[in-house]
Design brief:
119 residues, rod-shaped, mainly alpha, 2 helices
């Protein structure tokens, strides 16, 4: 009589041999490196990869251009704001100077009038 352990070993050995045989058949059926379909698929993947890289480069270029344009607009806005502030300050200074001159003229007129009254 055979022991059950030996039957398990034989079954496992046979199963392993069958699996090995199936794997070998699968590998033999697999496309070879020089298979035209495989070469065509690799070429297609390479062309897609190149096209994607070109699209990515174009996207990056457009993004850099947009950022440069936006920075130029911001710089122009800052410059115009600074010019407006400068013009406002100059106008304020001119107005203050004119007001001081007007006040001085009024003061001088009053002084002259007082001098003329006292004579």
């Amino acid at each position: 009589m055979k022991s059950p352990k030996q039957a398990d070993f034989v079954e496992r050995r046979n199963a392993a041999a069958t699996a090995k045989k199936q794997l070998l058949e699968k590998m033999q059926r697999a496309p070879k490196l020089d298979d035209p379909a495989l070469i065509a698929r690799r070429a297609e993947k390479a062309s897609l990869k190149a096209a994607n890289a070109a699209q990515r480069a174009e996207r990056d270029r457009l993004k850099r251009e947009a950022e440069a344009r936006q920075k130029a607009e911001e710089d122009e806005l800052a410059l115009s704001t600074a010019n407006a502030a400068k013009a406002r300050l100059e106008a304020e200074a001119e107005r203050a100077t004119a007001e001081q001159a007007e006040q001085k003229a009024e003061r001088d007129r009053r002084y002259a009038a007082r001098k003329n009254r006292n004579r």
